[in-house]
TrEMBL record:
Sequence positions that bind L-methionine: I434, G435, S436, E487, D602
Residues reported in the UniProt entry to bind 5-methyltetrahydropteroyltri-L-glutamate: R16, E17, L18, K19, K111, N116, R518, C519, W564, E608
Catalytic site positions: H697 (proton donor)
Domain Cobalamin-independent methionine synthase MetE C-terminal/archaeal span(s) in chain numbering: 429-751
Gene (name only): metE
Record-stated family: Belongs to the vitamin-B12 independent methionine synthase family.
Enzyme Commission designation: 2.1.1.14
Entry function: Catalyzes the transfer of a methyl group from 5-methyltetrahydrofolate to homocysteine resulting in methionine formation.
Cofactor note: Binds 1 zinc ion per subunit.
Listed name of the protein: 5-methyltetrahydropteroyltriglutamate--homocysteine methyltransferase
């Protein structure tokens, strides 16, 4: 008989219970004992709902207080020296690594493959020693067993762990540390074997990447060594793409099971058939999309499963999602206010479990036993495809017309820069922020009162205007050169715009973890996108009316809106992105016409959207850059276009960043200590750039000296006349006192740096 598998499940809970308990612990409102008790109850709930929905393969250790890669680092005692003074294996040390302290910067953070989930980058020494620490995977397995749940301990695999880590203080390949790491994995596997664990799941999404021959050999060597240990059976889970030329390597591994993502690698079974499936090996088939929210085409999924049965035998097949369900919300049935027709098209985590269980029944009992449910699925898919709500002729016609537009700015950047400097008269190293200011409890309370009807629209708008004025005054007093209105009217940088665009629908409980306790509610794009009316002009013009200094108009770019939404799957992603770009272009031109001279079009997700295989990069970059230029190229030379990107490696996409032709780009660099800036040196980037000088994901307030040091490093790479001074990212999640203190230090650092640059060379 086939089994239903959940290779990972949402952590936060149906109503973000994990977020609340962790933040209360950080704030000192609950003690560690209460945090642990509430976390145990949430883990019990997660296992119970999976069991109730027919899951027989569910994992232990997919729960995390912050990040699963950080958990793996702690399991193997990979703790940088700056955190060694804290109690070993304590929550204090764990959260210090994640968030930093006043005396120690946090671990670097970046995107988990091509998702919007952020992981913490383990820091390794060239002579790193790996030892087995507190055995969280085993402890959670035993916890589940005591509650009556049969689980499978799960952990990131050794090759993916090393490929996602960095060696500090040396230009060394982390994979060179594999011989040191393998004994720690062997010890971990032995501990599970001794406890009676039958199966373990090792996640190796790195197998979907472009790998060198040496990296493929590293997989072979690593798993050959693990096979020799006293151990449970191993299932290697791959996801986020097709294995392609790494399939033969995956099939060669001496393991008892392999998971394949058939949503993003639909041709995988054809290639498996050509190479041959190892007899007796378990085959986990990811036939349900773990990264999007649409009901599955169950006929197509069933056809894949039948192929799998032909290859491996029904008793060895697992019906699974393509990847962990971490990337989708908990339960669509919580969305009682959503349009019923659109809701019927959606499947969140619990509904995906039901789809998998239905497919398992069809495999075991025969298709006819489930024909009524399969026919209902066909009717549902047909109703969505045929809905008049999806397609708009006016949007399609405008897209055709846009193909004839010149998407270049009127003049080259050097010419524009002279005109912009004449208009704004900015000092060397102008200071600004990325856009948002703290969304305090008072701001959230005001929004809640308005939404509940306790405040009128006029009362709420008056409150927001008061906050904008207070922060404009505060920015002037701090001494910032370019101001922002603070975005107090916005819940989220994507959701806010989606709420005012046609073609989007929203959830109330569709939360997805982004990093740590930070959750987002991705909009759902169900139809063609258009802008009915201006979205930001009144807030930006009001803020500009309060000051003589320039105030940036703040927009989210088309690629980021696309990437951070659940996107329709019936048309190409590029087409949806172009539709969004046209809507943002209209907003840009309206802001310019209203007198806003600086407009920031944030694209933090541009690098995130890059396909995992290099052969697919150029096609993506071509349409991603085109979409940015659709949005930004219609303005006059005197209007300064900014963009912002964060937590990404830029070396390989510098030509695309230059082709975007933004006047100013701001990027995250503080957690990497300006390492990311080397890409701009190697490429000789010509436009202006603001490398972040302090990390906004940490509550610590960096000193003036620390930021001056970072600016000096930046000035070694980028000409001072190109440099801007800003934080890494928006300040929405920070507290007000720390924000003000950090910005004061940032302005002082810029002033000190200007003074040093003005001194004559002796």
């Amino acid at each position: 008989m086939a089994i239903t598998a959940s290779i990972g499940f949402p952590r936060m809970g149906p109503r973000r219970e994990l977020k609340r308990m962790v933040e209360q612990f950080w704030q000192g409102k609950i003690e560690e004992d209460e945090l642990m008790a509430r976390a145990a109850e949430l883990r019990r709930l997660r296992w119970q709902v999976q069991k109730d929905h027919g899951v027989t393969w569910m994992v232990a250790n997919d729960f995390s207080f912050y990040d699963h890669v950080l958990d793996a680092a702690c399991l193997f005692q990979v703790v940088p020296d700056r955190f060694q003074g804290l109690a070993a294996n304590s929550l204090q040390q764990y959260f210090a690594m994640a968030r930093g302290t006043q005396d120690a910067t946090a671990l670097e953070m970046t995107k988990w493959f091509d998702t919007n989930y952020h992981y913490l980058v383990p820091e390794l020494k060239p002579d790193q020693v790996f030892t087995l620490g507190v055995n969280k995977p085993l402890n959670e397995y035993l916890e589940a067993k005591a509650l009556g749940f049969d689980t499978v301990p799960q952990l990131i695999g050794p090759i993916t762990f090393l490929k996602l880590s960095k060696v500090v203080g040396a230009k060394a390949d982390a994979l060179a540390l594999l011989p040191s790491l393998i004994p720690a994995y062997q010890a971990w596997l032995a501990s599970l074997h001794e406890a009676g664990v039958a199966w373990v799941q090792l996640d190796e999404p790195a197998l979907v990447l472009d790998l060198s021959d040496a990296e493929r050999q590293a997989f072979v060597d690593a798993y050959a060594a693990l096979a020799k240990a006293d151990r449970p059976n191993i299932l290697v889970a791959t996801y986020f793409g097709s294995l392609g030329d790494n399939l033969a390597t995956a099939l060669e591994l001496p393991v008892e099971g392999l998971h394949l993502d058939l949503v993003r690698g639909s041709d995988a079974l054809r290639h498996v058939h050509a190479l041959g499936w190892p007899k007796g090996r378990r085959l986990s088939l990811g036939v349900i999309d773990g990264r999007n929210v649409w009901r599955a085409d169950l006929d197509t999924a069933f056809a894949h499963l039948e192929q799998g049965v032909h290859l491996a035998g029904a008793e060895h097949v697992m019906v699974a999602p393509s990847c962990s369900l971490l990337h989708v919300p908990w339960d669509v049935e919580l969305e009682t206010d959503m349009d019923p027709e659109i809701r019927s098209w959606l499947a969140f985590a619990l509904q995906k479990l039901d789809e998998m269980e239905l497919l398992r029944r069809a495999l075991d009992e025969g298709r006819q036993a489930c024909e009524a449910e399969l026919e209902a699925n066909r009717s549902l898919l047909a109703s969505r495809r045929g809905s008049a709500r999806l397609n708009r002729e006016d949007v399609r016609a405008r897209l055709e017309d846009a193909k004839t537009w010149d998407l270049n700015r009127q003049s080259p950047h050097a010419v524009r820069k002279e005109k912009q400097q004449a208009r704004f008269n900015l000092p060397l190293l102008p200071t600004t922020t990325i856009g948002s200011f703290p969304q305090t409890q008072a701001v959230r309370d005001a929004r809640a009162k308005w939404r509940k009807g306790e405040w009128s629209a006029d009362q709420y708008e008056a409150y927001l205007r008061g906050e904008i004025k207070r922060w404009i005054d505060l920015q002037e007093e701090i001494g910032l050169d370019v101001l922002v209105h603070g975005e107090f009217e916005r819940t989220d940088m994507v959701e806010y715009f989606g709420e005012m665009l046609d073609g989007f629908v929203f959830t109330k409980h569709g939360w997805v973890q982004s990093y740590g306790s930070r959750c987002v509610k991705p909009p759902i794009i169900f139809g063609d996108v258009a802008r009915p009316e201006a979205m930001t002009v009144r807030w930006s013009t009001y803020a500009q009316s309060l000051t003589d200094k320039p105030v940036k108009g703040m927009l989210t770019g088309p690629v980021t809106i696309l990437q951070w939404s659940f996107v329709r799957d019936d048309i190409p992603r590029a087409e949806t992105c172009r539709q969004i770009a046209l809507a943002i272009r209209d907003e840009v031109l309206d802001l310019e016409a209203a007198g806003i001279g600086m407009i920031q079009i944030d694209e933090p997700a541009l690098r995130e959207g890059l396909p995992l295989r290099r052969a697919e990069w150029q096609a993506y970059l071509d349409w991603a850059v085109e979409c940015f230029r659709i949005a930004s190229s219609g303005v006059r030379d005197e209007t300064q276009i900014h963009t912002h990107m964060c937590y990404a490696e830029f070396h390989d996409i510098m030509p695309a960043i230059q082709a975007m032709d933004a006047d100013v780009i701001s990027i995250e660099t503080s957690r990497s200590h300006m390492e990311l800036l080397r890409a701009f040196e190697d490429f000789r980037y010509e436009n202006d750039i603001g490398p972040g000088v302090y990390d906004i994901h940490s509550p610590r307030v960096p000193s003036v000296e620390e930021m001056v040091q970072l600016l000096r490093r930046a000035a070694e790479v980028i000409r001072p006349e190109q440099l801007w001074v800003n934080p890494d990212c928006g300040l929405k999640t920070r507290g007000e006192p720390e924000t003000v203190a950090a910005l004061r230090n940032m302005v002082s650092a810029a002033q000190e740096m200007r003074a040093s640059l003005s001194q004559p060379v002796r």
